[in-house]
Write a structure and sequence with these properties.
By secondary structure, this protein is of the alpha/beta class. It is built from six helices and twelve strands. The strands form two sheets. Strands 6-5-4-7-8-9-10-11-12 form a nine-stranded mixed sheet. It is elongated. The N and C termini lie far apart (115 Å).
């Protein structure tokens, strides 16, 4: 008899626990979303989106997120919507029992501003196209010319290499596309320009340029030179300025 009574108590306790859990789940599911938290998981210099923009993206073609219940919130759908923004690299969405909807966002980072013949846009560190934003602007190197989509990725790597170098990041202030695949580099001091050529082997070309600066520039200066050419991977060719019909 005692054993049966004990079993009955256990069964009753389990049933009560299930009932409480079910009540909690149902109660929480019917709770409305009370707050939208947007967190940027990786800091960048400029954010081109904010809470308001994210909310507009989420609400597009749907009911206001703050008028939905937790059970109505489709986390996967929200992630898909937000991920389509050109300013977002990745997003993870979660919701809690307090009615908070949290978005952990990794924002795209601008590394260059492209001034093309028909439009302007940013280039991200992954080599993707990102439109300008009314919220903010990025202080990045300007690249002018008709840059083609198949050049975005390599050009992004190139400008990141410039920024990572203590000497070159302050010396080279702009990039110009001057041919079908050729680029020139504009310097901040001196009346000359640098002919890069194509982006092929740009690491070696920049290495050669630094060697030239370190070994020769203090001795020959740059006043007499019109350009430095890096087109040939194994050397730097310095072209003197024409004076009185002579070079």
């Amino acid at each position: 008899m005692k054993r049966k009574l004990k079993i009955i108590k256990v069964v009753f306790g389990v049933a009560l626990l299930i009932a409480l859990i079910s009540f909690t789940v149902i109660h929480n599911a019917s709770r409305k979303v009370e707050k939208l938290d947007v967190a940027f998981v990786q800091p960048v210099e400029n954010y081109f989106i904010n809470d308001s923009v994210i909310r507009e993206v989420i609400n597009k073609d749907d009911k206001d997120i703050l008028k939905q219940t937790l059970s109505e919130v489709d986390v996967k759908k929200i992630e898909e919507k937000v991920s389509k923004s050109p300013y977002v690299d990745s997003v993870q969405v979660s919701k809690d029992i307090n009615g908070h909807l949290r978005l952990d966002i990794k924002a795209n980072k601008a590394v260059a501003r492209i001034s093309a013949p028909k439009n302007e846009f940013y280039l991200t560190e992954k080599g993707t196209k990102m439109p300008l934003s009314k919220l903010s602007s990025a202080n990045v190197i300007l690249v002018s010319g008709d840059v083609k989509p198949n050049e975005y990725e390599e050009l992004s790597k190139f400008v990141q290499a410039l920024k990572a170098d203590d000497l070159l990041k302050n010396h080279i202030i702009a990039v110009q596309k001057v041919g079908q695949r050729s680029y020139n580099l504009i310097v901040n001091t001196g009346n000359y320009y640098i002919e890069l050529g194509t982006l092929n082997n740009f690491e070696q070309k920049l290495h050669n340029l630094k060697l030239f600066y370190n070994q020769y520039i203090d001795y020959i200066g740059t006043g007499d030179y019109e350009k430095l050419s890096l087109k040939f991977v194994n050397q730097v060719v310095a072209t003197k300025r024409i004076k009185n019909g002579e070079q």
